[in-house]
Specification:
Helices cover 96% and strands 0% of the residues. The longest helix has 96 residues. By secondary structure, the protein is mostly helical.
Length: 204
Amino acid sequence: MDQQQAGSTPLATVLRVELEHTRQRVRELEHANKAARRDVEILLERSESERAAWRAKEQERWRAIVIEAKSEAEEEKRHKRKAEHLNRKLARQLEETSSALSKAMNDLERERKARQLMEEVCDELAREIGQDKAEVEELKRESEKVREEVEEERRMLQMAEVWREERVQMKLAEARHELEEKNASLDRLRGELEEFLRNKSAAR
């Protein structure tokens, strides 16, 4: 019909040109649609790769924190064993002092010397026990501080994960919105083309 009308009316020529332009526009929109889909796929692959790298890095970081915590726990155990050994030593010394005191009770001079010796030993023991208690309290405070810092770091990492996930979802939503808009434009143009062809057919 186009070939029959090409030489008869100028309107057919105009309609053919307009139809060709419309087809060209449809091809452009389809090409843009394919490009948008490729962009979305690239964005998804890149997001997954970044997430995997970030998770690996965080796992390595937490592994280092756990190793450090274990090392600190071992150090605390060593201090505890040292304190227990010192306590046993002090207990043995106290027992020996008591034994010496009981043996020296028959002699007043020996009893006085033994009392003086026991007082000196007790003072030394009290000073050493006070020092041990102070060291234990300091270790407890440091351990509590480390636990608090680890807990704060964990909360910050959780917030960072949530923020990253929200940004990825926003980017994906934007890409889907753009793709939907392009599809809607393509559908609208197809509808207009079909309407135009129906009108043309009806006019003929």
